[in-house]
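Protein entry
_____________
===
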Amino acid sequence: MEDRLMTVKELASYLKVNERTVLKLAADGPLPAVKVGNQWRFRKAMIDAWLDDQMLGISRRYVDMHTAFGPASMLLDLASCFAPEHILPAMESRTKLKVIEELASHAHRLGLMRDKNWFVGALIERENVMPTATGNGVAFLHTLKRNDREVVQPFMVLGRSAQGIDFDALDGRPTHLFFVLGLKFTELHLPWLAKLTQMLGRPDALMALLGAPDATVMYEVLSEAERKLQSAATSGAP
């Protein structure tokens, strides 16, 4: 299905939900939509970007992705696609484009992807549809489409900017932490990323990442925060 405007009925069929659910999500705000007269219309590219954020755990879950897309095809934990050498603790970039280029170059040097220019273009394409900076100083960059030929293995790289960069964040504030995801498969559920979003919602973890002296300590901060969440989930603690 090409990029086009969709009606409520078409979107309900695409998401495999009822039309009342689509109307509620549009009216309440989380679903990207525009009202023409008294009719809602939805751009497919923006819906797909929003679904990506739903699948990846970047934003609050509104749609049952297992119902819409079938069972998850791969489960990953943090250590399986992330390491201290994946982190740039002091980025040199001062603009959005330079951030993307610097992080893509780092992933390419690590051998995580084959074509740096493709990856830069794919990340920019996603940003042009909908910014990935969610606010609170954090952005989760990824591509609209998966590419199992260019991406050698699923990965994450992280860049930190002490001064912060204008990244079109939802809260209008500078972005300091840039998580870049290399996604290899079309249906890829990353449960560690949902946990990562929760970790960064805790001020102590966010401040620890911003104040860590080097990449090794930044990695340890994320690993410890992940362990705490896993322990809380096991014990049933909030």
Residues 129 and 199 are 26 Å apart (CA to CA). The chain is about 45% helix and 15% strand.
